[in-house]
Each structure stands twice: as C-alpha cells, then as structure tokens.
Amino acid sequence: MKQRREGWVGWLFAAPWVVGFTLLMLYPLVSSLVASFTNYSILRQPKFIGVDNYVELSKDTVFHQSLANTLLYALGAVPLGTVLAIALALLLNAKVKGMPVYRTLLFLPTLVPMVAQATLFLWVFNGDYGILNALLRKIGMNPPNWLGEPMWAKWTLVAIAVWGCGNAMVIYLAGLQNVPPTLYEAAELDGAKAWAKTRHVTLPMLSPVILFNVVMGIIGSIQVFAVPQVMFPGGAPARSTYMFAMYLYDNAFQFQRMGYASAMGWIMFLIILGLTLVSLRLSDRHVHYETS
Amino acid sequence: MTVRATILTLVTAAALVAVAAWGERVVTRSAKPDRVTVVYWEKWTGAEGEAMQKVVDDFNASQDKIFVKYLSISGVDQKTMLATAGGNPPDVAGIWQDQAFTFAELGALTDLEDMATAADLTRDYYIPAYYDALSKDGHLWGLPSTPASIGLYVRPDLVPADVATPETFPKTLEELDALSDRITKKKDGRIELAGFLPSNPGWWNYAWPILFGGENLTDHGPTVDTPEARRAFNWVAGYAKRYGSQAVQSFQSGFGNFASPQDPFMNGKVATEMNGVWKANYIKVYKPGTPFFAVPFPYPADRPDLAGHAVLSQDILCIPRGAKHKAEAFEFIKYVQRQDVMEGLCKSHGKNSPLEKVSEEFFRTHPNKAIRLFDSLARSPKAFSPPLSGFAPQVGTELNNAFQEVNTGSKTPEQALKDAQKRLDTLYKTYVEQVKPK
What we know:
The structure holds two protein chains of two kinds.
Chain A: H1 2-35, E1 38-39, E2 47-48, H2 52-59, H3 61-92, H4 99-111, H5 114-124, H6 131-138, H7 150-163, H8 166-177, H9 181-189, H10 194-222, H11 226-231, H12 244-254, H13 258-283
Antiparallel strand pairs in A: 1-2
Helix pairs in contact in A: 1-13, 3-7, 3-8, 3-10, 3-12, 4-8, 8-10, 10-13, 12-13
Chain B: H1 3-29, E1 36-42, H2 46-62, E2 66-72, H3 76-85, E3 92-96, H4 97-105, H5 113-118, H6 128-132, E4 135-136, E5 139-140, E6 143-154, H7 173-183, E7 185-187, E8 190-193, H8 208-211, E9 217-218, E10 221-222, H9 227-243, H10 245-253, E11 272-276, H11 279-286, E12 293-295, E13 310-318, H12 326-336, H13 339-348, H14 360-365, H15 371-379, E14 383-384, H16 392-407, H17 413-434
Parallel strand pairs in B: 1-2, 1-3, 13-14
Antiparallel strand pairs in B: 3-13, 4-5, 6-11, 6-12, 6-13, 7-8, 9-10
Helix pairs in contact in B: 9-10, 16-17
C-alpha cells in the first residue's frame, strides 16, 4: 500500500515534465511526422498523399540549393568556430593578470541578441561604408561587396557564427581547468615543450568536450535561421544565403504548405541525426575518456 | 502525501490547465462587460497605429453597443492564420490585399459580399481597381483600410533644369534611361549619384513584366517567361551592365532605411525613385524640406497604350472565418468606410482615398502635394494590383529571385525567367492539386 502511494507521489512530482514533454514535444513530433505524409495547409483537413512530399523534395531545386547553402555554412562555421574557441580558451587559461576582464570581453558577443547581431554586421560588412572594407582599403586591398555578391554573402554568415563562439569557448575553458596538473608535470619530466603538451595532453583530455561542442555546433548550424532571415530576407542575393530553415519557414507560413514543411523538418532531423552519428563514430578512436 | 494534499495538487493542476486553455479568451474578450467586444488585430505601430487607434476610439465613442479593442500585432498575417486554424481568430484583421486570396482560398475569410451590399458598399462606392482587387467570382474578401498607388518620385534639384518639372520630365522608359545616364556620376568605379535604379527600393519586382505589357498569372497558370517579361528583365539587366553590377550592389549597400534620414532619395543618392503615395509622409518626418515632385512611371516608347500604368496596393480589413462577432465586426468596418473617417485615416497615413468620391478638403490638406496625381493613377484604367490568386505570393517570390539573379549578373534574363517558369510550373501543379478551390 505504501509502495503504491509512493509510486503515485513519484508520478505527481514527475507530472510537470511528463505533461510538458507529451504536449510540447512528443505530440508535435508525432503530428509533424504524420503531417509530412499529407497535404496540409493549416486551415483544411490534412489529406493523406503518401510519400509525395518527399518525392517532390527530391526534385525541388530550391530545396537542394537551401540544403547546399546550409551544409556549406556548417562546413565553414563548425570547424572555424571550434578552432577559434579552443584557441581562445587556451589563451584564457593562461595565468595572466586581469584574466576575468579578458574572459568577460570575449564572452560578451554571445550575449548580443541575434537580431542586434544581424543589424550590427549589416554595417560591418557594408560594401561602401563598412568598417571591414574601410580597413581593407587602408591596406591597399580592393574588397568585395560582401552582402551584395552571391559568392561572398554566405561567408559573412560564417564569420558571424565564428564571432559568437563564446559559449563553446567557456565550455572548453571549463574542460581545460579539469585537466589534472599531474599530467603536465609528467609530460614536462619527459621533456615535452608547450606544443607537445598541448597536442599530447591538453587536446586528448579535452576531446570529449570537443566532441560535445562539435555535435552542438552541427545541430545549431543546420538549424540556422534568425541571422540570415534578418540580414538576407528571402535568401538574397539570388538565394545564395537561403538556408534550410528559411525555406522550411516559407513553405509553412508563406505558402501554407505545412505538410511539405513537415517533410523538410524530418529530413533536417535525419541529416542532423546522421551527422551526429558520423561524428560519434569518427570520435571512437580520437576521443579520450578519463574513465575508459 | 495526505488525501488533502493530493486533492489540493489536483485542483491546482486543473486550475492551471483551465487558465492555459481559456485564459487568452477571457483576457481578450472582456474589455467592456456591457458591450460586445470586437477584437481587431492590425499590423500598424507608431504614427500609423495611433491614427487607427483614433478611428477606433471615435467609433467606440460614437455608440454604446460595440467596443473595438485594437491590438497592434507583429506578423499579423501569420498569427491571424494560426488563430483561425485554432478556432479563436480576431473579429477583424488588418492584412494586405495580396494575401486576401491566399487566405480566402484556404477558407480563412468570411465573405463580406452580402453585408457590404446591404450597407451600400458596392463597387461604385469605390475606385473600381481597389474594389476589384478584393472581389472575385461574386465573393468579397475584405474592404480597404488604406490604399496606395505607386509613381516615380523625382528630386528637381538633382535632375537637369530642362526636365525638372512634372510637365517636362520624360514620359517613356527610353527617355528615363537616357536621363539616368546623364545624371549618374561615378568616381574611381564607384557610383556617387544614380539617376534611376530598378533595384531601388526593389519592392515591386513582380510588376516589371506587367509594366512592359505582360501578365504573370492567368487562369491557366503562371506566365513569367514571356516576350514582355524578357524585355522587362533585359531592361533591368541594362542598368546592371551600364553602371556595373558590382558597383550598383556596393552603392546600394550603403543605402539607409527608407524610414530614416539616410533614405537614398532623401539624402540625395538617387535622383528618381519608384515609390508609393506615402513617401511624402516619410519625407515630412525624416527630412522635411526635401524637394520632390512625382510623375506616372514611364512606359516603353513603342507601347503608348501603357501610359498611366501604375502599381496599386492596399491594406485591408477582413473578418476571419470563425470570428465570434461578425455583424459587430462589420459595423466597425462599415464605419471605417465612411468618407470623412476614411479620408482622415488615409490623410494621416499619407495615402490616397480608395473611395470614388473624394472631398476637395482632402486634396487641399493632404501631406503629399502630388496627391492628385496618385489619385488619378489609382483611377487609371491601366492601374493594376497583384493577381487575385493564392498562387500570387509564389509568383512574386520567383520573380523577385529572377530579378536578383539578373541584377547581380549571375544569370541572363532569358535563363533566369526560364528557370523561374520551370519552377513555377511545378509549384502550380501542386497548388492546383492541393490548394486551389475546385
């Protein structure tokens, strides 16, 4: 009897999460999966059309373009962001006076809201009046119009993503501070210099954190939406910055094709799942866990 | 846990569920207990929102049965759509004309035809082009709140003296092109002043083929790859070629927002600009004293039959499907259509009136000194609105993309239009199968 009552109490405590998960995650998840096999325009009853949405997606050139744009963006943003965040974390791990100030300064960009970031960088990358081009002209270069030329526009998004690497940097910093000093002492006794210590002690010890950040980076990059939506409405110029999530959003809310958008959502999920599994698989040989 | 505690927890949980389910309705519907509350969602904020709020206040004060609750909502179109799908829409929604048919084809709007006819709000009460843009197959999907017509604004201080009046300004596109070349100044490969740029402000890219005599969408499907469209996009490409695609992009990236003193027309970076009747209001607010006049947008020299053509647009009031108080909502819409109310609202928004009958006082006191021109453009038989179809947004999106491809030099006009047509053909097939009413 007591055990049964305790069971109820347990469920009651868990109820907020269970209710929240069921209503806000599980139900939409299942609904979108069902919707992806239907013609559903929000205001009409969904009509089952089998895999038509997926077949149409396979032939949709704008879908291919938005997917290619997004993968290219991820390919730039994730490795560059990772390298920069590790480099900054290594610098911030040094024992130098005034370090809290440097840490705060480098973390600050992460706190800037996305719309404000987008507006700020519209001016930084402005072809005629942007500070970047002003500096490049000062050193005798003939810089491009970053925002107006299809070839360059998406790289400005990569640059903005890298600029906001503060979150990852803080996680790396926490990881670095967990590396046992004894390992460095042992390496020094073996005659290791700074680079050797970084390569053979720091990076292996940091590898689980790198894996975590890379996986999170991949997820974030594939889902990128707010900054390109504000900076390049409609993926201008000429859809060169049209990202996967923007096309999904347009299909759902601009063209009222919720079924098609749901199919896109599931493809996005599968891509993220696939890339995550590949990352985990590749990490088998390179990630070192202290407990293993 | 005691029985009492369990009951208390369950009651609290039930109360939370009730608040979540009905709280929004309770809050939005109970503005005045002794009157029917009409919930009105509108896109406007700032001065435009204040002007509409004044109309609402005057309506609320004019009678004691209905209370209109005005709510300024960002993304009003999408939120209205979702609220309608959810069964709790506003009673009145302020959307744009080009969305009316998307909403209507999905069954999201109430047909106003009978109520409007009973209230004598028929076609002859309005400038026909505005009414026709809301009516199809005997259904009326909205009534105007504030409309607009689009012309060409000119800075007389930046154009040569021989064309610095509405009478002497070029009438044809070829003359405009030649004038633009005369005015445009470049230094070290960079543009300092542009006579005219088709990409500024770039808000009506769907209209270029129509301005050359074409048609983007017929009852049989999209028709964007036509000789007229090719001619229009070659004309666009001509500007990119003559002034340098990269130079134009670079020049335009330095343009400030249209609602700021850095607007390129106001701060003298472009001498002419295609824009709406409202532009004068922005000039008044952000750079008063900026000299300007307006003319109809020029037509191709070999198509004099297109003289007086003009793009039209309008903000509209509609009643979403499932609105709780349709009759009361229409009472408010009817009030807005009253000549004095409509003129007051349009004047404060810097727009022309959609009504057939316009008072002399309206013209005399309007903030845009070229208001008579914009009024006449709306009445022109060559005036046109976006196509009356739920497929129009997709046509607009593809033409916009084709425009950018041409303007950035990434595709030839022929290729860009061919690709747009191909894509639209596929999308149209899906639209016919899945959305278009049978």
